[in-house]
Amino acid sequence: MSASAVDPVEFLKGALEIPSPSGEERLVAEYLVEGMQRLGLEAFVDEADNARGRVGEGPIQVVLLGHIDTVPGAVPVRLVDGKLFGRGAVDAKGPFVAMVFAAAGLSEAARKRLTVHLVGATEEEAPSSKGARFVAPRLTPDYVVIGEPSGWEGITLGYKGRLLVRVRREKDHFHSAHHEPNAAEELISYFVAIKAWAEAMNVGQRPFDQVQYTLRDFRVYPAELKQKAEMFFDLRLPPRLPPEEAIRHLTAYAPPTLELEFFGREVPYVGPKDTPLTRALRQGIRRAGGRPVFKYKTGTSDMNVLAPHWKVPMVAYGPGDSTLDHTPHEHVEVEEFLKGVQVLREALEALAQV
Predict the structure, then answer these.
(1) Residue 272 burial (10 A CB sphere; 0-12, 13-18, 19+)
(2) Which Gene3D superfamilies match (predicted)?
(3) 161-266 has CATH 3.30.70.360 classification
């Protein structure tokens, strides 16, 4: 069945109607696989619950990987005034479905030059990045596109790294009239010190080169014989500050009474501007009537996970406005979504001629 026989907007709408928070992607993966098969692609659900597809038989290996899990929270699915609302419309079912239709629309000539591997990856919104880590040792691409919202005229070259930090303090309980900081106050003092360190690191730096910090959780447990407090914060790291270097600073600022736990370590990544892949995407954007622009994102993506494994040209691309990620108003403009399909298809055709 040709790509034109399946309506891409209706197909995306169906994917948005299937809830898929991290760890619960199986149903949407099965839906996407069934759709890829209808479009004539080889497709299956793998052991990590990734929705996998393949088209072409050529020597040039291209991986198109976008995540199919979402953050929690329902956004009612509806099509209003050319806007398709729904959790995942932008981040990132929309970009992945655009990849599916781009691959399905490839010419026979391109299919003889390319083998395109589609991966609808699981648990990107969780620290595990289960889907990307599963395929990392199983595919050997020459080029990689990560499906994330860049806007249809945008090409994302880099993402910040990440470090998640959990800090605990437990100490003997005492009367509140005693002149000593309690467990919670000790954690607050530590966070204030880390905030001051980050702000000093950021002086004179553009946003992409700054250290970002977000306090995600703070808990004080009822005290009986012991006081217990715990906080959880998130650091976004610029290329000049890899996770291990950040850990050295965080440990140096912590008094020995605090218990620190580090996880979710993702190395920052910035790719080159001029590669066959970026040239192909710029060509695709121009052919669709747009002006290409390079972008650098302050968040993280599966690009951070895969770049250390796949040392090949890699970018992130996808229709949608990333400022709508995780919001109650998440939606993609239908026109932009269709432009994204066109750009990706044109880019793949251009890669086939490399």
Answers:
(1) exposed
(2) Zn peptidases
(3) yes
